[in-house]
Structures are given as structure tokens and as C-alpha cells.
Amino acid sequence: MAFSGVLSDADMKAALDGCSAADSFDYKKFFKACGLSGKSADEVKKAFAIIDQDNSGFIEEEELKLFLQNFGKSARALTDKETKAFLAAGDSDGDGKIGVDEFAALVKA
Q1: Residue 23: which residues within 8 A CB-CB, separation 6 or more?
Q2: Is residue 2 part of a domain?
Q3: What are the pLDDT digits (tens) for 24-34?
């Protein structure tokens, strides 16, 4: 698993279990449940790099849709509604994607 060594398997499972139903994803609850909100700035940057699958320096909408699968291979994809809400919450400069600083702010929100 990509987050091994950064987050505990038990915390990731608990976070994923908390949003297993469609349209139940809440990024604030998820980041708190998986333990990411309590991590250092460097660890949050490592998490960003894992989620930024194409290494563009940004998390785009397609990467957000598959966000949960970074935490567990069998996790569901986010619904379009969840993906758009997540993007809107994180995209503070309105460019349609989430940069590393925007992601850090979202994690700590």
C-alpha cells in the first residue's frame, strides 16, 4: 500500500469504512480518521505526491475521483458529486486543480 509507513493500516481501513457508501465522503472526517490531519508538513507533502499519480504537481479531477483507492485498492471511486465538492473545497485559486499548498490547507482544515 502506498501509504504504509506514513499512515497505519488500521486508521486507513477505519477512514475508508467511514465513507464506503456512495455520497458519504467528507474530506474533513476522512483526513482526521486516517490520521493525515495530524501529520507533519513533510508527511502531508508525501501524501500529495502519492495522490498526484501523473506527477504533474497538481491533483486534477480524475485523480480526485480515484482518491480513496490510494488508501485501499478495493476502495470505491468517488461519485461525480463528491469529486466536484472535494475539488471546490481544495481549489482556492480557481484553476481547476489542487496544488500542494492547497492540499495541505485542505488536510489541516
Answers
A1: 79, 81, 82
A2: no
A3: 999 999 999 99
Report how many domains make up the chain.
1
Low-confidence stretches of the chain (pLDDT beneath 70): 1
Domain span including residue 47: 9-108
- Return d(Cα 18, Cα 98) in angstroms, integer: 24
- Assess if residue 1 is contained within a domain: no
DSSP annotation string for the chain: -TTBTTB-HHHHHHHHHTT-STT---HHHHHHHHTGGGS-HHHHHHHHHHH-TT-SSEE-HHHHHTGGGGT-TTPPPPPHHHHHHHHHHH-TTSSSSEEHHHHHHHHH-
| Entry pTM | 0.93
Q: What are phi and psi of 98, to 5 degrees?
A: -115, 120
pLDDT at 2: 73
**CATH number for the domain harbouring residue 75:** 1.10.238.10
